[in-house]
Amino acid sequence: MTDLLEALVYGLTIFTLAAFVGVEVIGRVPSLLHTPLMAATNAISGISLVGSMVAAGANRGPVATALGTIAVAAASLNVVGGFVITDRMLRMFKKRPGAKR
Description:
This protein is mainly alpha-helical. The protein has three helices and no strands. Helix 2 (34-56) packs antiparallel against helix 3 (62-92). The protein is flat.
């Protein structure tokens, strides 16, 4: 039982530190670099989508299939949301009709 608790605390510590580092890194990215950064993030999300589909279809039991299905849904939302945000950011850089620059 203590091994499980230690592993849980270790995992939560890593997750918390990664969250803080991620917020700091993303917060310091200039606006001009957000679009390439989002494209790279979408690629990583696509990889996690493929991995979650493999996990869902591995036939390792009903719990693994259910968790894999939840992971597929979450990764799909992440990919779609990333593309929507990237499209919105790219539209900000397009010239508006009648605008002078």
